[in-house]
Structures are given as structure tokens and as C-alpha cells.
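Person: I keep going back and forth on a fold encoding question. Show me how you would write down a chain together with its backbone fold. Please set it down just below, with no commentary around it:
Helper:
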Amino acid sequence: MRVHLFERARRRLRSKVQARSRRGATLVASSVLVLSLLLGGQGVLANPWSLRREPSRFVTAPWAQAMKETVETLGRRFPGRFGIVVSDVDRGFRYGHNEDRAFYLASAVKLAFMIEVFRQRERGHLRFEDTLTYGPEDIRDGSPRLHDVAEGSKVTIAELLDLMIRSSDNAASDLLSRHVGLENIERGLRDEGLKGFSRLTYMIDVRRGVYRGVDVRADDFTPFEVRALRWTPVWEPQVAKLNETLGVPEGTYTKADLLLGYDRFFATGVNRAPLRSIGRLFERMLTGKLVSRKASLEMLELLTGARTSTARILGRLPPGTLVAHKTGSQWQHLCDMGVIQLPDKSPLIVAACAEKGEPDPSERLVARLARRAYDLASQDHAKTSPHH
């Protein structure tokens, strides 16, 4: 048993709050609410994951044909494109469909940001106890935790990691990625042997990029203006808000223009990676080769607490199945990628993305793919012993 990595950060934060109270300092109610969520508890936990020995080589899974038949059946009913990789490290088996296609990752790109934070800690360039200041330039939509924190608040890197991965908080993501540097993130991926990642961007530039596809003046939108736009419901109300923010007459831009803005943004090719590389990322993590053995275990631990969508990889798995994963969502693009614990406690990597489909059918697709991979791998484990 050991103290959970991020529980230590929570305890430090709790001490700070108590010290402030003794000095008579006050916190706004919204900040207290956020801090209480951060302090809430996993207590002292054993890491549910263990590192595996990397197989001497990977081969096509014996259940690949059955998986292929499922993929083909689901593909006939799904209007868009999708891909999946499955990797059984204990058996040395792999399966892939469209695994070399570079899919848009949406918030799953935060996996890359997380890796570089751990790399820089490993090299002594930062400590998880270090703090960053949340200011007016850090306001974001998609920030379910930090948007209630008072400007000027200091947040530890450990807590920002927790928020970025487990709540997919965009403000935490941009604070961390700006601190470690996008160029360093991209270089770190190459150094870790993870090929095929495209140019990466901040979350704020994803938002501006969509609106820039409508009007280039969106490059000058402040974080507050971007958040106000994103908090306005789609489609017509948000288009009206966009016209207002740009200072152009009502009706200048329409829903069709905003949809075109999304198409133009996706065409830039940013924040993409082939699923083969995502599978390799998790293989390295499971075998203790991603950054270091310690960092690999801590990343698995962190990803196990993800609080985003339960309708994708988790959607059809047996209740209580342990999953370490990261999701991503944007207009007609979604992903879920991570590690599923099989009934015999062996890990199974599943990474899937879907494009050009509506959210509900896309989530159901990913859920069905994940469940089929889970069933086939579980059956294989039940009847055979590991061979490396």
C-alpha cells in the first residue's frame, strides 16, 4: 500500500486551506466548492495496475478474424469513418482497423501533454509540488473545475494533471502545456518512439481555429470572448453571438458558415495521430518504458480516475471493470483510448476513434467495439496460458 500520487497533492492543498483559515484569510464560495472536490477522497490506495514484460514480438491476434467481422458489420451501419487498435501485451497479440489513419484526437491529445509533464519531472525541470497561477488569460470553456477558481489562485502541477486527465479541464491543459512548451511535447513524443503525431496546439487555439475558419478576426478573440461563445448553445444562438462578437451585422454569418469553419479547422491537420501510435503509447506505458517505470505506473493510476464519458469504452463492459483511459470529443469527432483490465487481471489496450457521425451512434460504436475486443481476449485468456 502506498499513498496515491495525487492524494499527496490534495493533502498539501488541504493544509494550505487550513493555514489560510487560521490566518483569517477567506475564500469565495465557488473556490471552496472546487477545493472540496479536489480534496475528496481516494485516500490510501494500492495501484491497481502492474507492469508487464514486453513480448519479444507482436503477432496478429488469433481472434483477429472474429474482430474483423464485427468491424465490418458495424461499419455497414455507421455513416462515418472509424478505427480501432487492440493490443494484448501479455499474449503479444495485436489487431487493427484503419490503424495507420491519423485521427483527430480532440481532448485525447492531453495524453501527449501529460507525458511531457512526467518527462520534465523525471529530468528535474519541474516538481509536482510546484504551483502555477490561474489568471484571466487562462479562462476556458470546458473547464468544469478551474472556472470557479478565483483569478490569481495558485494550483499545483499535480492538481492540474489530475484536472486535465480526470476531468479533461481545458484550463488545466493549457496551463500545463504552456508551462512545458508545445515544442518540447512534440520532441518528447519522438524521443519516446511515438511517431506520426501532427503539430499540436493549445485548447484555446482549437476554439479560435474553428471561428477563424469563419472570419480571421477570431484570432484576436480574448479567452473570455471564446468562452462566452462556447457557452452559447449551437447553432443559431452561437452564430448570432459570433456575429455580435465580431461586430458585424446580424445574419452576416450563418450556421453553414460555422459548419464550414469546423471543416476548415479539421483540414489543418492539427492534434492528430495514427491509432497504431496510440496503441504503442499504451504498450510502452504497460511495460514501464514510457518515461520510466515509476512514471508509467503513475500515469496508469491517473488515467484510472477519468471522470469523462462512461458511454464509450466503458459503455458495455461488465459493471466494475477497471479501465484507465482518456476520451476526446469535438464536432463529429470522438475518441476513447486506454487499458481495460480483463477478468484474469491482464491488461487489454483498446483505442478507438470515430468521425463524421453523430455523438450517440459514435459512442455506441466505440462501446460495441470495446466490448467485442474484451470478450474475444477474455475467451482467449480463459482457454490458453500466456506465451511470449
